[in-house]
Amino acid sequence: MLTWRQLWVVAVLVAVAVPAVAALRYVPPPQPVRGKYEVGVYYFPGWQGPSSWQPLAAFPERKPLLGWYREGDPEVADWQLKWAAEHGITFFIYDWYWVKGATSLMHGLDAYFASRYHRYVKFCLLWANHNPPGTSSEQDLLNVTRYWLANYFHRREYFTIGGKPVVIIFSPGRLTEDMGTPAVQAAFARMRALCVADGLPGLYLLACAGPDAESLAVLAQQGYDGATGYNYPLAGLPGWGSGPYESMVTGYETIWRQFLQIGKLPYLLPLSPGWDSRPWHGDKAVVRYGSTPARFADMCRRAKAMLDAGTPGLVPGMAIVEAWNEWGEGSYIEPHRQFGFGYLDALREVFAGGGKHQDLVPEQVGRGPYEVAGLKPGKPEWEFARDREGWTAGMELTDLAVQDGALQATALGNDPILTAPPVRVDTRQRHRLRVRMRTDGGKTGQLFWAGVGSGLSEEASVRWELETDGEFHEYSLDLQGHPQWRGVVRTLRLDPVDRPAHLALDYVRLTP
């Protein structure tokens, strides 16, 4: 029989060898690692409810190790920040939406601010200005700069280059088309002056661009500090279509060298683990098949070699990845069912020197689950008497809330999106769409649908003309004769208007 002292030694050894899996009250603190490089990752805040995850049901290999998670939960953000910091990622680049003073999809960044571990990973913004024509102006650019100054730029965690806060502009062409090059140049100068007046060295603006000499010359004239990319899905392909990820790796390197040969602006190297947008686009999707962590590591090593060589024309010591969580586009490195931590480990190995480490998941420490409610398909009839009933807003739609027994929102542009919660609609039994709504703008509403394994498309949709007098009207459409209304429908998307407007939905029903 063991003495009390021997029992104590055994207990200590067990405690050291096997961490307690049910006693932790929160996400374990990060064990950060970093090399000499700044490694950024784009973050798409598109996963706030069951309707967002529904198109991925046919792609279980993509399921995150956090599950179909509640994005916006600070504890979810802390797992993401922990994993990022432990694999050499130094900053997140949040996709950020603003249209003439209205913001949307803010929950991801709000969770970052509410998290405990945001000090380990800095952040900056990609202004995803998929904005309608005519919405850009000098005054709007000054307004957005004041918003950034008031809310972001003075935070310790904001990522800077030379002390200047970094902002990436997704669609520089939107500014050019709306304002013209001289006006953009003048507005950028005034934006920088606002930052200097507020105690900052300036503002570092990057444009998402392709390797075109003429357009890069325009961007340089407008005053961008550099260029980069969000993604290049067709890199290495002769034209539109699909192809192996290996050719994407070499195609990216070709694009990098084209930028350097043109030489108009410093270039911040972008990386990508792949592309497969079938959840969004179905059979029409571009698919770069054969992506693996090892092949992604090859792309990373090619980028690192150029950075190590001090290649002229590059933003030095820095690279960015698209993306942490573009699950629908098939471009993600967040831990998931198919490859686990493989892509993150590849990034750590190349840019932070690798080394032994432990990749924990919530189940190992008694945390979670974090899955959203409402993933089980429900009846395709929504009355909005008390809550949103699982409907979520996409880009160009804000202020989504139930008031006075109706789902109300503000459309910011020409393509506002409402997504229904998961459904299972037998099209033989339900073929009548009934929508009762009011709006003060727009010409048409549109319903999209998709089955398992197919993406949303214009062919599988129906439009109707709107009454815009601000009163409720019922619209009733018979889908029985529509050639694409067949089989079982799993995904529904409603574009309630096609112009900026205020709107309210009393009910949406699919009936016999």
The share of residues in extended strands comes to 25-35%
Which topology of the largest domain does CATH recognise?
Answer: TIM Barrel
Oligomer: single chain
Structural class: alpha/beta
Number of discrete helical segments? 12
End-to-end CA span: 75 Å
> What's the CATH first level of the largest domain?
Alpha Beta
Q: Report mean pLDDT, rounded to a whole number.
A: 93
Domains counted in the coordinates: how many?
A: 2
Q: Profile the largest sheet.
A: 10 strands, mixed
Described by the principal axes of the CA atoms, the overall outline is globular
**Proportion of residues in helical segments:** 25-40%
The low-pLDDT segments are 1-22
Instruction: Give the second-level CATH assignment, the architecture of the largest domain.
Output: Alpha-Beta Barrel
Which superfamily, in CATH terms, is the homologous superfamily of the largest domain? Glycosidases
Say how many strands there are.
28
